[in-house]
Amino acid sequence: MSQDPTTTPTPPDDPTEPPALKRHVLEMHVPDPSRANDAFVAWTAGLGGVLAVAFALVLRLGGPLPVYSGCLALSLFLLGLAVRRYFFDRFPEVVAAEPREVVEEVRVPVTAAVDPRDDEDDDYALIKPLERRGFLTRIIVGAFGALGISLLSLVPSLGPNVGNTLRQTPWARGVRAVNNDGEPLRPEDLAVGNIASVWPDGAIGFERAAVVIIRLSEPPKEPTNMAWVVDETVVGYSKICTHAGCPVALYREQDQSLFCPCHQSTFDVPHACKPTFGPAARALPQLPLGVDDEGYLIAMGDFEELAGPSFG
Predict the structure, then answer these.
(1) Rounded distance, CA 280 to CA 236, Å?
(2) Is residue 246 within 8 Å of 260, Cβ to Cβ?
(3) pTM for this one?
């Protein structure tokens, strides 16, 4: 189908194209170069970098807190001041006007759209940042680089690497179970339905190693590890609740349950201390129990599961 050459095609509608508004500069004040300001920026940035290095040195040498903290605070203040003054005369002061009257909307194709900032009549777009001496930029970048490197000196102060200490306790093969007075415990010391809080010998008070020993009225059931049960009824479980780390200090003989008084988590002892009530989601870890040549209760190893609340 032929097209009449005298007919001008209608541009497609593009409602996203706003009408072009031109801004015109009425007044522009270009600040004079200031050697004093440049010197101020250079000295404050340089001194800020030196103080950042001093902060790291004093911290690593074990200096007093007021000294290295003062160096860091003053360094941050000077660097902030240097950046502020760096941009003080970077741009000219401009008074510009922009038309506010309603103009007729002209819709043009996207390919024909013109950025108002590129329009020759829009002298606002001709405003450019003033040239700046390159050495000032290098000084500021170098000072902030020194600050960033100096902050690495804080890493050792975070403390030693904990390694696997959160998963291990002093319980090990052959370690005796002792009470708060350090006295070892024999299985026959526990009557049916009685419990005893014990610690690893030599580690009394090590919180995550606290264990409660219980003599049940009958052998425990699955999924209890029967190889870790002494005299078929004496079992040991972590005393630290798997919910929030509170001590599971109460035993209800009627239903043979351990009870955490903090958040009411309840654990079924005959069934491997699985949680039956409350917020705890994991069973209390079972301690491998045995007896030594003298008949005292000992551990046959550490917990195979994490004692206490989950982490990570």
Answers:
(1) 19
(2) yes
(3) 0.54
